[in-house]
Amino acid sequence: MEHIHHAHTPRGDYGRFIAAIMVFCLLAAAGYALQHTISCFLLSWVIAYLLDPLLVSAEQRGMKRIYALGLLYILLGILTVFFATFIVPTLTISWNSFVLDLPTYIQQIKQVALEWKERLPDRYGSDEIQWLIDKVAGNVDKTAEKAGSLAYGFGTRIFFNLFNLVLSPILVFFMLYYKQTVILTLTSWLPRERRTQIIDIANEVNNSIGGYLRGQVAVSIIVAILATSALFFLGIPHPFFCGTFAGAASILPFIGVIIATLPALFFAWFKFQSIAMLGQTAVAFGIIYFVEGYVIKPLVFKESMNLNPLVTIIMVMALGEILGFWGILLALPIASAIKITWEHFLLGDFKKR
Fold first, then answer.
1. Residues of the chain whose pLDDT is less than 70?
2. Percent helix, strand and coil across the chain, each rounded to 5?
3. Among 263, 265, 251, 181, which Cα is nearest to 222's?
């Protein structure tokens, strides 16, 4: 009888695991329906997550949390003024320059398509190829017509992002100030017989997520600075725009390196019309990502998440589809949390004792 009891125990465990997955799916559906609210909350949570180690360090030195929080906000206010005075105007000028040059780029693409059409030999199915080029040239005009609607959609997203930036400092303050109260409240809800065990697993997940978020922000900033400097030195148009894009694209695992180089190669080609300049741009990005992969990340990421590449890609695609940018940013931390919890489940840490 005892043997039969042990044979049926895992079924209940797997049932609870399936129920947890269903709850996660329901939460994901709710997150999709409340994208802007969730986006504001996630922005505040990530900022609070990144700033909390500074407050913990101040508390260890004997400073009260409220005083440390006030001092931190003063420093952040000074940095915000500096950013708004020097960085934002530079990025705005770069973006406006890109928008003004966009019609020129579109016309150049159309001209290149027409030139290729004239150079095609009249054999080996060139009619089909010419039809394809005509189709591409026609779509260029349609793309220009859609530029207005895309600009409107971008403006709408900017509005919500500005709203988030105004509301986030308030949420961050309360998240940091009431952190210990929230932790104690959540801890009191845990079953007493498993409280210590769950807290240990939560701390393990917390260390993994915190290390990744802080490391990824540092890596993105370094990549953005290196890419901007390299493109400025090479004379590529819109270096700040391309550098910022490269820093953001570094969040994507595996394919981020390829995506980051596309704008820079695009602008290099249309300014210089030179294969040599394309090669120099590609080499510059190759050096940057070599340094990132073999120097910066080993220093920044002290502990690797050791995630399966296939699982990583699936998580990035799925959460990116549901939550957009935040889904892409948090895909790896969530996958790491699931991996850690699943490993403890396989070890039998969740079985009744």
1. 1-15, 17, 28, 30-36, 95, 99, 102, 109-110, 112-164, 301-306, 323, 349-353
2. 90, 0, 10
3. 251
Distance CA 11, CA 200 (A): 25
Q: What residue type is 31 in one-letter code? A: G
Torsion (CA) 232, 239, 230, 270 in degrees, nearest 10: -90
As given in the structure block, the two tokens for residue 224 are 């953005």
Does this model's pTM top 0.85? My answer is no
Give residue for tokens 């996958």. 335
Please give the Cα distance from 78 to 235 (Å, whole number).
Answer: 32
Angle between helices 65-82 and 126-177 (to 10 degrees): 140
- Asked if 256 and 183 touch (Cβ cutoff 8 Å), the reply is no
Coil/strand/helix, residue 150? helix
Phi, psi for residue 308 in degrees, rounded to 5: -65, 130
Predicted local distance difference test score (pLDDT) of residue 107: 72
pLDDT computed for residue 228 by the predictor? 92
Q: Which residues contact 274 (CB under 8 A, 6 or more apart)?
A: 268
Q: How far apart are CA 300 and CA 331, in angstroms?
A: 19
- Contact residues for 169 (Cβ-Cβ < 8 A; gap 6+): 73
Q: Which helix (H) or strand (E) holds 248?
A: helix 239-249
Would you say 35 and 324 are in contact if contact means Cβ atoms under 8 Å apart? yes
Report CA 12 to chain centroid distance, whole Å. Answer: 37
* Residue in 304, 210, 206 with CA at minimum distance from that of residue 253: 304
The pLDDT of residue 4:
46
Cα first-last separation, the chain: 18
Q: 126 near 120, Cβ under 8 Å?
A: yes
Choose among 325, 245, 251, 334: nearest CA to 40: 325
In sequence order, which residues have a C-beta less than 8 Å from that of residue 165 and are 6 or more positions away? none
